[in-house]
Amino acid sequence: MNKIISLFLISIIISSCSTLEQSIDQLYKEVRSSSEYTVKENETLWSIALRNNTSPRKIALRNNLKKPYVIYPGQKLNLSNLESIESKITTAIKWKLPTSPSIKQNREGNFWYLFNGEIGDPIFATRNAKVVLSGPVLPGYGNFIMLDHGDSYLSLYAHCKDIFVTKGEEVLSGQQIATIGSSEINQPTLKFQVRKSGSPVDISEIKFN
Q1: What is the pLDDT of residue 201?
Q2: What is the pLDDT of residues 122-170, one digit of tens each?
Q3: What is the CATH classification number for the domain harbouring 195?
Q4: Which of 104, 123, 138, 159 could form a Cys-Cys staple with 142, CB 3.0–4.6 A?
Q5: How far apart are CA 80 and CA 181, in angstroms?
Q6: Cβ distance 181 to 188 under 8 Å?
Q7: Which ranges carry the LysM domain (predicted)?
């Protein structure tokens, strides 16, 4: 009897741990785990694509969405057969560091750089570009900037404090565009990503100069 009770308790503990891990990872697994996804309040194709490491264009094509790709809360999206991007892009492009070289760099998965600085540390444009998004436009990413570099490459800057550029503005490589903040994150951090044709580039392919 004691052995049976012990096995029962162990199964509960294992189940609880599994549930906890699933809860922690829910943000990223939610989209992948179901072929049908229900759009939540304030979500966009970009926010869903970012969490699924894919491109908004793939989601739009899969669901026959037409430009400007407007989605609404409660809408059902088919996300079956959307493969996570494992970018094999090799490029000689050199990217300027998006912040001070003295700031510690970390990685989050294969597609995000994390720069753990201080509130107010500068954020720079990595190359010449046009601003296509600016402000708190994607839930979960705080004050956010997206730059279009004109050659199918985009660069993304999340959790900014102050933003010094607006949508449609042209910026130069090395120009300060924002400061590091902690909007929608626990500590001052710049979350940085590069995308090629809408899909994330593996950070091992990104070379800073």
Answers
A1: 87
A2: 999 999 999 999 999 888 899 999 998 877 889 999 999 999 999 999 9
A3: 2.70.70.10
A4: 159
A5: 36
A6: yes
A7: 35-79
- Letter for the amino acid at 200? P
Which of 44, 78, 112 is where one domain is finished?
78
DSSP state of 183: T
Closest CA to 77 of 59, 95, 55: 59
Unique residue bearing structure tokens 């929608």: 184
Per-residue model confidence (pLDDT) at position 81: 64
Domain containing residue 72: 2-78
What is the C-alpha separation between 124 and 134, in angstroms, rounded? Answer: 14
Contact 120, 138 (CB under 8 A): no
Please, are residues 24 and 3 in contact by the beta-carbon 8 Å criterion?
A: no
pTM value surpassing 0.90: no
Q: Is 12 helix (H, G, I), strand (E, B) or coil?
A: helix
User: Could you tell me where the DSSP H helices lie in the chain?
Assistant: 2-24, 26-32, 45-51, 56-62
Q: Tell me, what DSSP letter sits at residue 84?
A: P
What CATH number does residue 62 fall under?
3.10.350.10
